[in-house]
Every structure is written in C-alpha cells, then in structure tokens.
Model the fold of this input.
Amino acid sequence: MKVCGRVGMRRAVVLGLVLGASGGACGDAGESSGSDSDSADALGADGVDGVGDVGPDGSVADPFVVPSAVPIAELADAFGRARCAFDARCEVGFVGAEPEACIASAGAYAWMGEVVQRQVARGRSSYDAEAMGACLQWLAARPCGEVGQLNWDNGVDGGRSYFTRDVAPDWLREPSCRAAFLGDGEAGEGCMHGVECKTGTCFGADRGICGVCAASGATCAWGDACPADERCDQAAGRCVPRAERGEACGRDADCLPHLRCEGAPPGVGTCGSLPRVGEACDDGNFGSALCAVGARCRGSMCTAFEGAVLAGDGEACGSERACRPGLSCKDLVCVAAGVGDKCSYSHQTDSLLDKYDGCPPDLVCGANEKCAVAKAAGETCRDTRDCGRGLYCEGTRKVCEARLGEGAVCSAYPTGGECAYPLVCVGSRLFGTRDGTCQLGAKPGERCTGKEDCAADLTCTSSSPETCAFYGSSFLGCR
Done:
C-alpha cells in the first residue's frame, strides 16, 4: 500500500480494492491527476478514501467515511469528511490536518450545505438524506483531474471554489448530487441562485433583482441563459447539451464543466480531462476550470500552485495562500485564533454550517468582536452573538434562552434573533417592547413597513411603496 505525501509518517490513504492492478495512488496534481484512468485514484470498497492511524496489524482506521444516509442535522460533519477525503487524496486544501480538526474545519467551509439547509427551512426544496450521502461519497471520490478552480480564482483560495462550486457546477452530472442540492424551481419561476432551480441556473439575477430558472433547450443569446449543463449555440439561437468526454468541441465552454477542449483552438478538438502541471492551458478562456486542482494557469501553462493547500498553524500565508478556518494570517504566518482574539461578526442563524467569522468552530464571535466560548442556556449575555447555536439573549434578564417557535410573542429590538431561523419577528416596532410574533415574513416584492416584516435574508426597501427585497447572501430569493 502506497503512503501519500503530506499526511504524516503513520498515516496512509486507504485506496481499497479498485486500485488492484491499476497502480494509481495518491492522485498528485502534478503527476497522476487528470488522466483518463483517474478512477484509480477514486475510492475504496467502503465508499470513500480516508486518512487514519496504522495499527500493529497493518489495518488503517478510516475517519473520513461518509454514511450512506446523512440526516440534515449532520451535514457539517458529513461535508467535512467528504472534503477531507478528497483533499488528502488529491493533496490540496486541508491535506496534512489532523483528522478531527480537518473534519471540523472543512465542515465549517461547507457553504453548499448551508444553502441546502436554508432552502429546506424556507420550503424551497425537500431533503433527501440518501441522495446527500451518495452525493458526498461521489464528491469525495472524484478523479483529481476532473476538478479545478475557476479562471477568476487567481488570488487566495478561500477553500470553497472546487469542492462544491456553484458557478459552472461540475457535480451536475451526478444524479444523486442533483437530487441532494437542487431546489424545486421550475423553468421560468423566480430565483436568486442557481441551486434553487431544477436546471441549476438562475438567469438574470443580480444585486437583489430576481431572475428566472433557465429552461432546457430555450432560446438564447448568451450562455448564462442556459441550464448549467447546457451551452448557448449562438448559430442556432438555443441551448444545447454540453459535450461529453471524447465528443467534438471548439472551445472549453462546449464541454461539461469538469472537462476541457483538447486540441482547440485552432480547429475542432475533443473534450477530455483538465490540463495538469506542465500542460498547456488557455488563460484567456473566462469562466473555465483551466487546470486540474492544485495547479493554476499562468502564461498559458499549468503550474503548481502553493495556495492550493490551506496553510496550517505556524505556516506561511499571504496574498496567494489562505489559512485554515480558525487561523489568522498575521505577519505572513498563520496563527491559531483563540479566546480574546479579534474576529469579524456578520450574521447568525441556527445553521451548523454558517461559520466564517475567523474563530475556530468551537468558539463564537462575541458582541465585542472577539472570539469567546459560547454562552449556554441560562448564562448571562450582552446580546445574541454571545450565545450558542439555537439560543438568543433575552433582553430583560440578559440570559441566553432557546429561540422561539412560530406564533411566539417576540421583540426585534434591541437584541434581535429571538425567533428560530427562518422565522422573523413580524410587526415589532418599538424598542424593548414585545410587540411582534415569530413568522416566516413577507416574500420579495411584497409590502413591508420595516425590515422585521420581511422573511429571513430580505430587507425592506426605502423606496415608495416599501417592499421586501433580497440583500447580502445569494442563498435564497424569489418565488
């Protein structure tokens, strides 16, 4: 059994029976990634590669196994396991992190799971635990040579651009992932994000303006009017399926997002694996995944990219290499964030996956914008940011309490966050007065008097008449 690099002396990647006679191993981005036989660096008999301790009998415990069915409450853990398995095998992202820390950190980066949780909470889709399990197993086992960063991802890679990307999603070819991620939006229905739609594309959404779910085979003038696995045939003026591996193409955009057009330009090429380190690439082809993960296209050549591996505690960081979650880049070195360290607070929901504040997963970014241990129910607090998940800071007694359910009396001021996501405190107007009730709130385009009347993730415009409109994150929107 071959032991992969960057995983430590007593750690090894479990390759399973599929490696048999193929001889493939770690899926190194500079050597074995990207070949047409990349199934060899895929998965073991249990469904997912993993990194674990080698026992006296030579057995390897696998901490990265993804279950066949993933309850929605366990999304963060499952995403973390799948991402860590992929990163260890392809030697990118979180490779080198201890398993427990890797799962926690990678789970906190699982923005796609946050999208799923919000869609289910808002009634935009149902949740399929079996499909999610199958999808995450598939994501963990993908050939390294069919996964790449997008063209505009040239600076620090925040760690989210390749595993479950939303622009030109390469996971759409897997039925279980479509079932796990895509919402129930039919063609022509309002949307703000591609994953709200059955076709994976929301056409025309921009800065709070609602778009519509793209239709398969629709008339088009530009590619973004087409479903994510189709392209705009401008000569025919309609959306057509993207080419599969081995099929003819004239440019990268003609191929499915996990492939590139080999031999073009000039002339007509065929769709094949993404270029590897040392192979030619088209750095002017905007929007394509130009090089296999772990490499970047520079000067029309794929070169090894140091920033493909997130830096750990004490490792160098800077303009092209980001630190792992819970670490801060200080004086070009990653330093572990701890209690009392500065952080940046954005918004708080009940989601287990909403964690991008600069604190480790086990700490909160408190009211004073410093990392702190979360307050438990009954403990004193300054505001809701001090409390643990599922809790809010009660305004009179200043103690953490469980968030309120639908129909409960609430106040949006001064603390906010009293209602369990996605409920909001509709009708609340006065400071310190419990004059609202926890409800789902108004939809985009519906009338409002204040932002507390609008559904979660929406605000009330200042124009006349005042209406609810999308702002901030692009997770949810129109209907």
